[in-house]
Amino acid sequence: MTTPRDERILIIRLAAIGDVVMASSLARRVRDEMPGAHISWLCGETVAQLVEEFADVDEVISIDDRALLTGNAGDRAKALMPAWRRLRAGKFTRVYLLHPDVRYRVLTIPLGSARVIASTRHEAHGAMNPVPGRYLGDEFARLMDGREHRGPIIGHFPLGRLRSRPSEPPPSRARARVVIVPGGARNVLRESALKRWPVEHYAALGASLASEDAEIVLVGNANDDWVRPYFGGVPTTDLIGRTTIPQMLETLSGSDLVISHDTGPMHLARLVGARLLALFGPTMPSQFVIQNDRTTVLWGGEHLACRPCYDGREFADCHDNQCISSISVDVVLRTAIWMLRRKSSPTPDRPSPQTPGETALR
Q1: Whether residues 39 and 113 fall in one domain
Q2: Any domain includes 157
């Protein structure tokens, strides 16, 4: 009979950064409830550097996710074979497959008699995971209960722990350091431009914050170099495409405030506990963030019957993302200044009123 100490657990979540961050809640719950278990994680090469930072994971198995998800049949076979060999050698007793799409079941072929517990959208409500509208980090962690649907579940499952905790911001600094994430919203499979707050808005925001004597830091990956010209007249520290994931975690942790729409660095900011101002439009905030004293959300488009339009897989055929673009620079600026001042004032005045169509959640 297998005991908790003998359990060999495999988590399968290939990408993207935000989903991997939220899935870390499952690894943490397994570690907390089964401290002697061996936990492996099968992920894509594009996020392996992040998974290697999770203290709750003993082994990272990576696969060429670009070839697997976008290549031809030969490319997919070439990516699968070495991963299958490592999975077969792992002798796993329990597998958590965090992809509802049944096509990802191909990854479990070599796992033999291991018990596979998978996310699914195609079962009755009692067995559905994730349930639409719920925070995905909780839904991933809930898979540890199997296919049961129970309640109430009090509180939220925390995100995973990091091997080396990024350093905290210094206790005092002459200038506030604000990290801005103007690009992103792109992964191996798609570009989700509808989620982006307009880059022109970010540039105007950066200029206004700089005039308030804030230090502006730009982050993103190498694919975000298209945003640079918009910040030509704004004094910034440009780190776009110049940081590894561990370095970005350090940068986010060392900030006084991070401002981002729904994209990878927004989730990394939550992972390190940074103060976060998150901007949402076509996606539902409750699925991707937990509101607390370090996270404020502005959800635009309250006046739109089509919000949210993301169904967990696809966006509407929309060519004018008024939902997020209707969030004004002025509202974001006032909210950012309020959040920065809140660090030193126990009861600051909340910025009000909100402009029509913009909802601030705290």
Answers
A1: yes
A2: no
Is residue 82 one of the residues assigned to a domain? yes
Pairing status of strand 295-300 against strand 215-218: unpaired
Domain with 181, as residue range(s), is 177-361
119 and 37 Cβ atoms separated by less than 8 Å: no
- Which residues touch 350 (CB under 8 Å, ≥6 apart)? 338, 360, 362
- Whole-number pLDDT of residue 191: 66
Banded model confidence at residue 124, pLDDT cuts 50, 70, 90 = low
Q: What is the pTM of this model?
A: 0.91
Report the alpha-carbon distance of residue 306 to residue 285 in Å, rounded.
15
pLDDT of res. 234? 95
- The stretch 162-188 carries a mean pLDDT of 78
Is the residue at 163 inside a domain?
no
| CA–CA separation, 327 and 341 (whole Å) | 21
DSSP label at 95?
E
The answer on 315 and 211 residing in a single domain is yes
Cα 300 to Cα 116, 134, 141, 295, 313, distances in angstroms? 39, 19, 29, 16, 21
Whether residues 225 and 322 share a domain: the answer is yes
Condensed to tens digits (0 to 9), the pLDDT of residues 29-78 reads 999 999 999 999 999 999 999 999 999 999 999 999 989 988 999 999 99
* Residue 201 parent element (H or E): helix 199-211
Cβ-based neighbours of 330, under 8 Å, separated by 6 or more: 355
Name every residue whose Cβ is closer than 8 Å to that of residue 310 and which is 6 or more positions away in sequence. 282, 283, 284
